[in-house]
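Exercise 7b. Backbone tokens:
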């Protein structure tokens, strides 16, 4: 009995190629509905690569809005990041409305303080898949604060100014304690901060000579 032409390995190469091409096209056609059906789950949390992120760091309780998105959930004074497109973005707060100039693909934190104009800081986040971004925001009265890692006996961030911030990408996953030092004096500490890969933690230092305090907050995004 002669074998079926499609299964015959002795058929000319052009016939086999035609069969393979037809089979692949049919497979793609049959698979297409499944891919479309899964698009929502695959893409719903993907941000435009040119878009940016803005969040608020408030020295007190309050409500704000970034580009029309209301923010009323603060942890340690920090809100989640709000996704925005580059250009002029309106920040509404208790003192009125401030227009922010937003560059593409950038993270920002806006500091809100009573009796002062909003101050926008650029967050130098690496978003390295093998590391965790650690940011220190110095809202204390002490200038030139160092972020010290006791386990490594090393300074991770040096001389963060008053109302300023700096960031560093550290190895992850890892759990670390951090000290906040002005010269040789330890102002405050936070213990057991969990560092996750391609994630971030922000630490806010507050206080004055009467006492300092620090809180570590995971970076989050409004979806």
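Sequence design result:
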């Amino acid at each position: 009995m002669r074998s079926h032409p499609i299964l015959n390995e002795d058929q000319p190469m052009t016939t086999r190629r035609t069969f393979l091409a037809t089979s692949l096209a049919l497979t793609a056609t049959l698979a297409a509905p499944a891919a479309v059906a899964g698009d929502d789950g695959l893409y719903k949390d993907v941000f435009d690569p040119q878009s940016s992120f803005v969040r608020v760091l408030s020295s007190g309780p309050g409500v704000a809005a970034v580009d029309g998105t209301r923010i009323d959930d603060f942890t340690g004074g920090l809100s989640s990041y709000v996704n925005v497109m580059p250009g002029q973005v309106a920040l509404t707060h208790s003192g009125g409305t401030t227009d922010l100039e937003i560059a593409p693909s950038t993270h920002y934190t806006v500091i809100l303080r009573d009796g002062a104009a909003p101050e926008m800081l650029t967050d130098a986040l690496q978003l390295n898949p093998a590391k965790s971004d650690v940011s220190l925001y110095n809202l204390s009265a002490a200038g030139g604060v160092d972020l010290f890692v006791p386990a490594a006996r090393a300074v991770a961030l040096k001389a963060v100014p008053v109302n300023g911030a700096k960031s560093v990408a550290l190895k992850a996953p890892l759990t670390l304690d951090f000290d906040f030092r002005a010269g040789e004096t330890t102002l405050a500490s936070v213990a057991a901060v969990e560092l996750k890969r391609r994630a971030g933690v922000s630490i806010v230092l507050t206080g004055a000579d009467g006492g300092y305090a620090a809180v570590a907050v995971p970076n989050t995004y409004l979806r």
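Instructor comment: The domain at 47-123 is CATH 2.60.40 (Immunoglobulin-like). Helices lie at 13-37, 39-43.
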